[in-house]
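Notes to self after the Tuesday call (sharing in case useful).
The group wants a holo model before anyone commits to mutagenesis around the pocket. I volunteered. Ligand is guanosine-5'-monophosphate. Logging inputs and output together so the record is complete.
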Amino acid sequence: MMQVLSTNSGATAKLLSPGKLIVLTGPSGVGKGTLMRLLLSRHPELNYSISATTRLPRPGEVDGKDYFFIDRTKFQRLIEEGEFLEWAEFASNLYGTPRKPVIDLLESGSSVLLEIELEGARQIRAKFPDILSIFILPPTFNELEKRIRGRKKDSEAAISRRLKRAKEEIDSACEFHIQVVNDDLETAVCDIEMAISDGGLF
Ligand code: 5GP
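Result:
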């Protein structure tokens, strides 16, 4: 059953029916994190899954809030113990979605938003056929490169790996239910809200 609520933007959006999984994917630097934070602030019924990663924290990132920062040995052990719903290697680091919190939320009827890269999204789609999958595109590839370089948080080698991977990910955008161009942030959030409420998937 759908309910209707008024969002902070003044727009009207339907709440999701409970217990649904939404996957947000797109190349590094496209602004997924910002979009996700905006969505979560407007829709308290959505829950965010905190991922684990072997990447070192960037300045300002907090363990247990942005990610669970763990080493490779621990990550490998968690893989063997089946603790990840999905996991993937991205730009020489491992990233994974802890299984239990997501399953518990879904089983209790809560909806969960995953912000993950392409391989992980494919694994989730294989396990949960009725997810809503959204791919975020940059306005242009040059703009994406400018954004990745502009955040000055990664080494040149890491930037090159991310740009190479970004090309591959963008080529797969059509695998997703919805493609949203993140040119203007407010427009992109509204597009995602519309996809969630009007997609007919919930
Ligand atoms: P970053 O290092 O910039 O925080 O993230 C790099 C990429 O890893 C991003 O595309 C992000 O969406 C993705 N990512 C973050 N958490 C996970 C996760 O749990 N699983 C997978 N497969 N990708 C993730």
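Two things stood out.
Residues 1-17 have pLDDT under 50 and may be disordered.
DSSP finds seven helices and eleven strands in the chain.
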